[in-house]
Design brief:
The complex is a heterodimer of chains A (111) and B (117).
Chain A: E1 9-12, E2 18-23, E3 35-40, E4 47-50, E5 64-69, E6 72-77, E7 86-93, E8 100-102, E9 106-110
Parallel strand pairs in A: 1-9
Antiparallel strand pairs in A: 2-6, 3-4, 3-7, 5-6, 7-8, 7-9
Chain B: E1 3-7, E2 10-12, E3 18-25, E4 34-39, E5 45-51, E6 58-60, E7 68-73, E8 78-83, E9 92-100, E10 103-107, E11 111-115
Parallel strand pairs in B: 2-11
Antiparallel strand pairs in B: 1-3, 3-8, 4-5, 4-9, 5-6, 7-8, 9-10, 9-11
Classes of the chains: A mainly beta (111), B mainly beta (117).
Chain lengths: 111, 117
């Protein structure tokens, strides 16, 4: 159950796009189309933004999109807004157990 | 409105025990897997434990196996986490979360557990 690898930080100006990577192995990200992304503002609970690699829950803007290639998943936030400044975490199933793993988190700063 | 509300956090000495509870409302509780996720202060998220709809299947992260027990009472729409042999590294905010596919779509506000002498 090793944590997935995310860059510690990413940034962009308002209106620009930022992409966050989430690298795992062939036993987690590479083996399942079960990657999720969460947004967490300081002092708040995480919020689901993307599930099953590319799907958006109701109410999540289409500025948020997910993708996957091999053992690496990505979250792209287009048209950056001030409220997008937050920590973002990826997660995936791992191995044969139904317990998954999270990435270490990426702090997105809107310049 | 879907709500999950945790309770039972607090300060406990190393080696001690604590029970967290989660009250669910606004959805058909026995139709969903449930889970506990924790976050140590200033750190990332950790997927602690899962339980299936009828409580017959339970899964745990390696570091809590044999020490933590997840359970549910579908008649009371409640989820519990029994934590024994607590260690300093178990100190965290513990979130109750509703499972949706392989993700968590609703989260509580969290219960703070501090393990310290």
């Amino acid at each position: 159950q090793s944590a997935l690898t995310q860059p510690p930080s990413a940034s962009g100006s308002p209106g620009q796009s930022v992409t966050i990577s989430c690298t795992g192995t062939s036993s987690d990200v590479g083996d399942y189309n079960h990657v999720s992304w969460y947004q967490q503002h300081p002092g708040k609970a995480p919020k689901l933004m993307i599930y099953e690699v590319t799907k958006r829950p109701s109410g999540v803007p289409d500025r948020f999109s997910g993708s996957k290639s091999g053992n690496t998943a990505s979250l792209t936030v287009s048209g950056l807004q001030a409220d997008d400044e937050a920590d973002y975490y990826c997660s995936s199933y791992a191995g044969s157990a139904l317990i998954g793993v999270f990435g270490g988190g990426t702090k997105v700063t809107v310049l | 409105e879907v709500q999950v509300v945790e309770s039972g956090g607090g300060l406990v000495q190393p080696g001690g025990s604590l029970r967290l509870s989660c009250a669910a409302s606004g959805f058909i509780f026995n139709s969903h897997w449930m889970a506990w996720v924790r976050q140590a202060p200033g750190k990332g998220l950790e997927w602690v434990a899962n339980i299936n709809r009828d409580g017959s299947e339970k899964d745990y992260m390696n570091s809590v196996k044999g020490r933590f027990t997840i359970s549910r009472d579908n008649a009371k729409n409640s989820l519990s986490l029994y934590m024994n042999s607590l260690r300093a590294e178990d100190s965290a905010v513990y979130y109750c979360a509703r499972r949706f596919s392989s993700s968590f779509d609703y989260w509580g506000q969290g219960a703070l557990v501090t393990v310290s002498s």
